[in-house]
Amino acid sequence: MKAIRVSQFGGPEVLKWEEIPDLIPAATQVLVAIKAVGVNPVENYVRTGTYALKPNLPYTPGADGAGIVQAVGVSVTRFKTGDSVYVIGSQTGTYAEQALALENQVFPLPKNITFAQGAALGVPYSTAHRALFTRAQAQKGESVLIHGASGGVGTAAIQLAKRAGLTVIGTGGTDQGQQLIKDLGADFVLDHHDPNFSQKLLEVTENKGVNIIIEMLANINLGNDLTYLSKYGRVVVVGSRGSVEINPRDLMGREAAILGMVNATTNASELEKIHFDLIEGLKDGSLKPIVGQELPLKEAAQSHEAVMKPGAHGKIILVP
Ligand code: NAP
Known about the structure:
The protein is α/β, with parallel strands linked by helices. The chain contains 10 helices and 15 strands.
């Protein structure tokens, strides 16, 4: 089979399209013929070799994908050959024509969801769900600022927050991104580059501020975020690409909290609960993953450049 392989850490050019041996499932594994792969920013960080997670070389990148079960190990009971599935994590990497996953990393793909949409479900929807409901403990009737709402995690967060009855303020950096946020049902749409952002946010919240902020770029925004919170407000730091200065007094008066989160620490039973809930939303149409761009898998290098550029518009998907 063909796979994208990384034999040395570096820029996007180290992602090579290579022939490697077909995979065979062990007793507890599911072999999936991958039809679509979700590209996440973290795969960029890992590829550089400077991230906390440093795989042994050579490796096949990728955690998210969707496809058809090609074979199952003898202990696998929940899946059979021919099932349409999506995977959230794999043992061998999803940037490939085949991937091996443990049974608890595989979920049934609802009939109304395409493989490309299925490949958008792993990291982005798990992260958005966990940020909103496990970390921020979001409640119906609260308001949420999704600071960076046009990309993979942000579009998922809009859908999940609306489904749960929150008022959503979403931000995008381009007209196309802002239109998408509006189309997804956000109550208010703002531009995170707008010099009058703080004032506009206060206007749309009638000077009350927001209960929750889901923050995609904390190194730029966290200091100001604290001033946007209402009493007992919570900021969940989902993304950050550097350090930032904050004024702790902005937290004190509001008795507010900054909450970190990292998707990788979600345990299997929590992940299962999250995905059973997501599958309900996919089936009833309240959740619809947004595919912004599809590229051939062999162009993975281009996808890594694209995912780090401004102008997000849903997910970038690779097709083997
Ligand atoms: P993505 O699809 O590339 O989207 C990036 C988002 O950030 C876009 O909405 C983008 O908007 C927005 N953004 C750009 N500049 C911004 C600014 N100044 N203020 C606020 N938002 C800004 O990436 P993603 O998959 O949604 O992931 C978002 C971030 O979360 C990444 O840093 C990723 O590494 C991180 N992440 C963390 C976890 C975790 O476990 N903690 C899990 C998943 C992702 P425009 O392009 O429209 O400007």
